[in-house]
Amino acid sequence: MSAMKEVIAIIRRHNMQATKAGLLGIGIPALTMVSVEGRGKQKGLPGWNYELDPALAEVEEKNTGINLRFIPKRMIYAVVEDSDVPKVVETIIRTNQTGHAGDGKIFVCPVENAVRVRTGERAEQALR
Ligand SMILES: Nc1ncnc2c1ncn2[C@@H]1O[C@H](COP(=O)(O)OP(=O)(O)OP(=O)(O)O)[C@@H](O)[C@H]1O
Ligand SMILES: [Mg+2]
Questions:
Q1: Domain coordinates in residue numbering, the chain
Q2: Which fold has domain 4-39+73-126?
Q3: pLDDT at 4 over 70
């Protein structure tokens, strides 16, 4: 049974630096990030769509009855030891929580294995 988890967090774009710095501060330097577009339970707030022409989106939404809007976000991935999960989650909350809708979402997922290519180390050894 592996003792690692992948913490996936979708956060506001402008909180990336603070989140990175916060994670570094608790000893988590290694992570991956991607630029994504997403929507939560508000289905995307009007006025935040940079991909679709808002006027076109409005027409499309009227015609299809489907809300098309997505909000640009940053997604970060950190594979960490089980024992580090609580402080990673707390740090992401501390650096992203404003109390307003859209503060972000965190998912904690099981990880089967990890391998450091340079050395061939496996599992938790590959993270240390
Ligand atoms: N259930 C989900 N599955 C996949 N991605 C999600 C899910 N919920 C939220 N997300 C992603 O997280 C981003 C931020 O979500 P958000 O903070 O708006 O969550 P929420 O559930 O709507 O909470 P709030 O009411 O605080 O806004 C979304 O833009 C989307 O990319
Ligand atoms: Mg939301």
A1: 4-39+73-126
A2: Alpha-Beta Plaits (3.30.70)
A3: yes
Ligand 1 pocket member 73 (CB < 6 A): yes
**Nearest ligand 1 atom to alpha carbon 38:** 31
Atom of ligand 1 nearest to the CA of 70: 29
Angle formed by the axes of helices 85-96 and 16-25, nearest 10°: 150
Rounded Cα distance between 11 and 2, Å, is 27
Task: Convert the pLDDT of each residue in 37-48 to its tens digit.
Answer: 998 886 555 544
The alpha carbon of 103 and the centre of ligand 2 are apart by a number of angstroms equal to 7
Looking at ligand 1, which residue's alpha carbon is closest to its atom 18? 102
